[in-house]
Amino acid sequence: MSAAASVRGSIGQPALTASGTRLRNVARSEWTKLWSVRSTRWALLATVLATVGFSVLYAATTVAGWDRRSPGARASFDPTSSSLGGLYFGQLAIAAVGALVIASEYSTGGIRVTFVAVPQRVTVLTAKAAVVAVVGLLTGTLSSFAAFAAGQAFFATKGAAAHLGDPGVLRAVAGGGLYVAACGLLGYAVGTLLRHSAAALTTAAGLLFVLPLLTNLLPGTWGHTVREYFFANAGVQITTVHPTSGLAPWTGYGIFTLEWLAIMAVGVALIRRHDA
Questions:
Q1: Smallest Cα–Cα separation from 207: which of 109, 90, 91, 125?
Q2: DSSP designation for 264
Q3: d(CA 40, CA 5)
Q4: CB of 224 within 8 A of CB of 167?
Q5: Distance (Å, whole) CA 103 – CA 135
Q6: What is the pLDDT of residues 17-29, one digit of tens each?
Q7: Contact 89/51 with Cβ under 8 angstroms?
């Protein structure tokens, strides 16, 4: 009896027909698996609370010091991206969710059961990525619009609020959801590559939060180039109305996407070549 026909036996799993290994069915299984873990809910709640909470804190601080700003600083102020500053903290929680989607299974040995049930490893990895993308997009979009609304409530007291109908604003706020989804997929890509929970979490946090800050210390034009193109520095341009670097919003997001896809490609290649 083939693995596609049935995996009942020593692993104690129910029979799985060939149709059960289709991407749609595998994705449904991965969706159920993700929500069966209590930490998922806490991590997603942390994403929303961190994004909105730190955005409100930043907006309140900005308003408190508004009268001391120079006319030039007020003119160049981007209320949209300023209200989305909490994404820098919320991104860490969603990256953790992405990393643990696969790394935790390797840590517990559960990945062996998964690959016995669905021998097509690329199908499993694609299904997991799709689940991370959907969860990240929904959580990120909710967080982004909530943070934007809260931030503009503060900026409106100084007559500096932005509105969704203003040029580039809707794209930037919706881009917050896309950015969070990409951060989740970066965490997933790192988890696929390293297959170890602690290592994946540490690496994802370093790529998204620590190393982007350290790139500010790099000297010269090459340092400037690295800083612009480095992961979160490039990806976050999608949340700006007035880009803070030489990268256009979609260009920066595209570069960020290519970077996590490159990590993912290496991880997938290793998983296909080695036993679970």
A1: 91
A2: H
A3: 32
A4: no
A5: 17
A6: 445 568 889 999 9
A7: yes
